[in-house]
Amino acid sequence: MRALVTGGAGFIGSHLADRLVADGHQVTAVDDLSHGRAANLASAAASGRCELVKLDLTDPDLLAVVRSAEPDAIFHLSAQIDVRVSVADPLRDVTANVVGTVAVLEAARRAGVPKVVFASSVAIFGPPSRLPVHERTPTRPLSPYAASKLAAEQYLRQYHDLHGMDTTSLVLSNTYGPRQDPHGEAGVVAIFANAMLAGQPTRVFGQGANVRDYVYVADVVDAFIRAADPGGPGAGRTAGKRFVIGTGVGVTDVELHREVARAAGGAPEPEFAPPRLGDLPAMVVDSSAAAEVLGWRPRTSLAEGLALTVKAMRET
Hints:
single chain, 7-stranded parallel beta sheet
């Protein structure tokens, strides 16, 4: 397979590039390097089967890049992911997440790309009235970031309905693992681990009772691969669909802190800070549809994933 990965030098995108190369595929990684790092693709590039193209998705040259790559599938992971940035600068957020997505879809349509898989977020559900959330849970985005992700999903569905394009959205719960930015909004595991390894204090917000569903990056990558595989168990059953990806296991902030400290070899108890406005009290997902259609299940326990994450951070 020839694959194009937007956001390919980022956290999840670079792991996806590694997996595609390991499986023998050819990869074109497109990234403007505003947050991604070329070093994340060092291993994939060394194989000779991964090329990095520095480009903003709204650049008119995107179509030429897609046509040159001739991908069998586009994995669209490039995004503005910081909720705080989206609130402070919603125009920047919508440009990256909605205009960028439409640019990818239009380039894919004009270049005849048969498959597009999109990285969405559980933020689209807002504060759910019932847990766990699933594909049919009503959406209630509370931030510009969440609204932009939902709008991007709607454009994928529209391109499927109007143009017959095979599009699939994967709604990701809290993804963690090596290469996650410890200074990013979505990187609480990396934030905890980075501070603990440096002997710095850590903090949790409120009473540390907020609950999240943490899924390891390699398992998320496997979901992307399965969603794009025309010969896999989901063949003919993924077009125009949304699949929720997570473990189904809720972990409180305090429990997560304790588990990261165990993986890091110990750390003091966290400081407690006032709760943050807009934080959801709980988010846990039901991935049974992904199991049924894609044959996907999370394979990495939280303890194992945290150990792998901390080990990688120690080595960098």
